[in-house]
Task: inverse folding
């Protein structure tokens, strides 16, 4: 390719032979064509590398890098290190971009020079049918300075986001220790510098849910949420964001205890201890009632109330969860 493309797309791939071809085909179908795609094969043991190499041989915009397995964030960093475009976008190996995705985001960048995080709405998809849409209300759509909201949860699907390459490099890329929450950690660090998000309310990404999604491990995901917020206290933050992170980490610690309890629902002592710990972290009426329901004496109906709480935990953490 002659000259730098406008967008560099970072694609981490690990044993993704079943899906990565569809992800890359969605890139080739983009109406906006001034991009490069850097696919990092992260130590795959299947045919991922061969499949990507074949695509790269047919289209010079695609490039394959191979490395020993280091995880999603390490693969993203390897791609970022050689990216040339002023904007970098993320595409996970099992997701799909709709054809107007890049065109819409580049138009947003042209319309608002302040924007330093571009994203789109997305649909949760099982490969055949749409299960849900991430944002269904305009008033909940996270545009502008969303730093305080971002402290509470990851607002953006990873495969929807583009950020300035210079900013991603300045922030030293993604934290390889955060297997699931590395994207949220990055967006929070952008927010600490002053975030101005612009997005397409039209869903332009399909986020695939299947048994191999890393984020379906709810205990690990909850644990990483705590780590993301605890890390943030070691960096300079504006007072409103600091206060929001302090509130959020209490909630995140409580969620981790609930996730742990959901893995051992047949152990009443463990569940009771976890729910008590959740209440200690987040002293709300809801947490207190959850704990009391499982601690209530059996002769006074404790068996029934405990069963209700266990069923609630099973539904909350056993169902398919949308990822970041």
Result:
């Amino acid at each position: 390719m002659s000259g730098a493309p406008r967008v560099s797309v970072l694609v981490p791939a690990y044993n993704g032979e079943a899906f990565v071809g569809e992800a890359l085909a969605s890139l080739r179908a983009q109406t906006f064509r001034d991009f490069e795609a850097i696919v990092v094969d992260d130590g795959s043991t299947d045919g991922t590398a061969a499949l990507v190499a074949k695509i790269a041989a047919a289209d010079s915009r695609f490039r394959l890098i191979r490395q020993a397995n280091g995880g999603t964030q390490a693969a993203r960093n390897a791609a970022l290190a050689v990216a040339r475009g002023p904007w970098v976008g993320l595409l996970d190996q099992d997701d799909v971009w709709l054809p107007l995705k890049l065109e819409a985001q580049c138009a947003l960048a042209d319309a608002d020079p302040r924007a330093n995080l571009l994203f789109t709405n997305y649909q949760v998809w099982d490969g055949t049918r749409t299960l849900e849409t991430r944002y269904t209300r305009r008033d909940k759509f996270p545009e502008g300075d969303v730093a305080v909201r971002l402290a509470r949860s990851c607002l953006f699907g990873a495969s929807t986001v583009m950020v300035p390459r210079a900013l991603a490099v300045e922030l030293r890329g993604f934290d390889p220790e955060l297997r699931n929450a590395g994207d949220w950690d990055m967006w929070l660090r952008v927010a600490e510098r002053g975030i101005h998000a612009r997005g397409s309310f039209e869903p332009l990404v399909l986020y695939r849910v299947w048994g191999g999604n890393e984020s379906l491990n709810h205990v690990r995901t909850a644990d990483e949420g705590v780590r993301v917020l605890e890390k943030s206290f070691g960096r300079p933050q504006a007072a409103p964001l600091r206060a929001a992170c302090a509130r959020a980490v209490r909630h995140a610690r409580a969620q981790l205890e609930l996730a742990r309890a959901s893995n051992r629902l047949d152990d009443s002592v463990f569940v009771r201890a976890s729910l008590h710990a959740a209440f200690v972290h987040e002293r709300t009426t809801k947490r207190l009632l959850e704990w009391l329901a499982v601690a209530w004496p059996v002769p006074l109906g404790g068996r029934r109330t405990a069963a209700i709480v266990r069923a609630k935990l099973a539904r909350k953490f056993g169902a398919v969860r949308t990822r970041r």
